[in-house]
């Protein structure tokens, strides 16, 4: 009989699920529900940025010493650097600028600031979760999020608003800790299925959250409680209050329901599940044969049903070196993908205004289409098929979809002001390429054709959103589990063995924190680069170049990303399924 496992690193509520294979779905639902509330609170502010920043601009008009005046001055210099303020450049004379361009860019700059802060904080939060426990660090990070929303609630000045964003950027840890917790309780065979719930939460929240934010922005708390205006209440405090309420509910829910997953008891439960899956798969394999040993009967699978990793005999130092190498490759791919994807995502609103004169409602319909389709794909395809298709293959599928989608948008962007003269003079492109760009740029596509091309591109971006980051995260999580079978915890032992201490040379929280931080750096830098290119050379060149760059990243990823079946990790169940 197995003895009780050692106590978790951090205590859990008495109503929290116990560490057992049967508790995995319940814990996953708890993590999903909390994450959904968290992202809903995060997305509430997204549609408010233009009006919110215009409110600060109007209220601080004439104060040249304010942080807002300094920020707008820097953005004016940036616009001059990329040619937006130069009436003599071909791009500025042919590309229609959206109104209040400085406000749009300031909103993008604040988004980049948040991502930069996440780049700094993510490894620290991950490391702390390895030492103090996921639950404890998550509750601490929730306290920071609550303070951030409380400051926003009373931020009648731009300075206080920026302070609230800084606090939020440094304390937000729900996403990466949710990934770590699901990784703690799932086997390699079920890892992608579990982590797909993170993507589904994102898709649902980004579809509903902005609409909630826009609705509650019309509820002016200053008019309802004029006496609180002296304390900093402002016209957008209604949305801030909603975000604060959601985060409060989330914090209480986590405190009551969430167990500690970074514990020996959960590691034993996961290993027990792996062994049960392996036995079940081996027993159902047509090529397996029973082997009697004393009073027990084991199942021995032939190589046709299970092909062990060729590196399974490596020692722990060599495995740690492989981990570092694989995580570096995954982090680079994560950075490169989000650098391109987030950049083009940021310019999509410029494109729809520029070529289609989209209203806010039409913009919302397009983004809603991407979000809903992404959610359906994550629930119906990624969650069900990732462990069968393979995480690496699904990453490549998503990247190809992004390249085709961006190419589709580029093809119908002719007439948008692609500056062929500038390209030929500065970039020394071949004459045939200049001729092709000129031909595409002079095509007068009908609005219907442009709409078909736009929504075809949006479909590709939805496929990308559903697959790439989710499966890259799954791969990074699986790499964290690298180790020989001998290093796995024994389900009949209450104390970790010496080999078990070497099971994870790299802490899972720290490794996933570093992985996420590089993605956040891509999110911070991508919009700046894409915006500069878009307004310099127009949408045709911008989207065409991005499509070519994604194809290049796809080819590189196909060469450097690891295959799950070839990793020296506890993947017997997953490998057996694939081998059948």
TrEMBL record:
Coiled coil: none annotated. The chain crosses the membrane at residues 30-49, 103-125, 137-154, 194-216, 236-256, 335-356, 362-382, 394-415, 452-479, 533-557. Residues 282-312, 487-498 have a biased composition (Low complexity). Its main location: membrane. Residues 1-23, 277-312, 487-506 are annotated as: Disordered. It is found in: Membrane. Residues 27-580 form the Major facilitator superfamily (MFS) profile domain. It is a multi-pass membrane protein. Keywords: Membrane, Transmembrane, Transmembrane helix, Transport. Signal peptide: none annotated. The keyword Transmembrane helix applies. Pfam families: MFS_1 (PF07690). The keyword Flavoprotein does not apply. It comes from the Eukaryota. InterPro entries: MFS, MFS_dom, MFS_trans_sf, Sugar_transporter_CS. This is Major facilitator superfamily (MFS) profile domain-containing protein.
């Amino acid at each position: 009989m197995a003895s009780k496992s050692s106590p978790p690193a951090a205590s859990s509520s008495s109503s929290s699920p116990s560490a057992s294979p049967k508790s995995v779905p319940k814990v996953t639902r708890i993590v999903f529900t909390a994450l959904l509330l968290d992202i809903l609170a995060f997305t509430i502010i997204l549609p408010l940025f233009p009006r919110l920043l215009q409110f600060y601009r109007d209220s601080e008009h004439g104060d040249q010493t304010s942080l807002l005046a300094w920020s707008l001055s820097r953005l004016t210099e940036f616009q001059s650097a990329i040619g937006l303020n130069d009436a003599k450049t071909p791009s500025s004379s042919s590309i229609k600028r959206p109104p209040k361009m400085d406000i749009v860019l300031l909103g993008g700059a604040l988004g980049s600031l948040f991502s930069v802060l996440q780049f700094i904080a993510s490894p620290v939060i991950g490391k702390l979760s390895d030492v103090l426990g996921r639950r404890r660090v998550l509750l601490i990070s929730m306290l920071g999020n609550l303070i951030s929303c409380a400051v926003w609630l009373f931020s009648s000045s731009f300075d206080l608003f920026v302070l609230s964003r800084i606090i939020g950027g440094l304390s937000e840890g729900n996403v990466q800790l949710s990934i770590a917790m699901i990784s703690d309780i799932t086997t390699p065979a079920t890892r992608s299925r579990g982590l797909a719930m993170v993507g589904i939460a994102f898709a649902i929240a980004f579809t509903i959250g902005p609409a909630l934010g826009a609705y509650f922005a019309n509820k002016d708390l200053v008019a309802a409680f004029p006496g609180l205006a002296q304390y900093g209440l402002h016209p957008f405090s209604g949305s801030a209050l909603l975000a604060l309420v959601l985060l409060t509910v989330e914090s209480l829910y986590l405190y009551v329901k969430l167990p500690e997953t970074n514990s020996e008891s959960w590691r034993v439960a996961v290993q027990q599940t792996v062994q049960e899956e392996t036995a079940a798969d081996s027993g159902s394999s047509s090529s397996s044969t029973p082997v009697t040993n004393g009073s027990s009967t084991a199942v021995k699978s032939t190589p046709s049903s299970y092909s062990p990793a060729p590196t399974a005999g490596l020692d722990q130092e060599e495995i740690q070196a492989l981990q570092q190498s694989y995580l570096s490759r995954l982090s680079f791919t994560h950075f490169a993908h989000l650098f391109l994807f987030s950049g083009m995502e940021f310019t999509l609103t410029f494109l729809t205004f520029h070529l289609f004169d989209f209203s806010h409602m039409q913009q919302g319909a397009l983004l809603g289409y991407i979000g809903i389709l992404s959610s359906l794909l994550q629930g119906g395809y990624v969650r069900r098929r990732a462990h069968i298709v393979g995480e690496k293959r699904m990453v490549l599928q998503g990247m190809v979809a992004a390249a085709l989608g961006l190419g589709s948008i580029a093809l119908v962007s002719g007439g948008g002001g692609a500056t062929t003269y500038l390209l030929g003079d500065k970039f020394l492109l071949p004459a045939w390429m200049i001729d092709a760009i000129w031909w595409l740029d002079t095509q007068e596509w009908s609005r219907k054709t442009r709409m078909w091309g736009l929504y075809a591109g949006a479909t590709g971006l939805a496929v990308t959103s559903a697959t790439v980051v989710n499966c890259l995260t799954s791969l990074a999580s699986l790499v964290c589990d690298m180790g020989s079978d001998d290093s796995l915890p024994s389900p009949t032992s209450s104390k970790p063995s010496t080999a078990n201490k070497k099971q994870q040379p790299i802490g899972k929280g720290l490794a996933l924190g570093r992985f996420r931080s590089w993605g956040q750096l891509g999110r911070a830098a991508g919009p700046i680069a894409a915006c500069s290119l878009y307004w310099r050379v127009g949408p045709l060149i911008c989207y065409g170049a991005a499509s070519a760059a994604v194809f290049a990243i796809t080819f590189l990823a196909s060469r450097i990303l690891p295959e799950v079946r070839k990793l020296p990790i506890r993947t017997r169940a997953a490998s057996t399924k694939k081998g059948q």
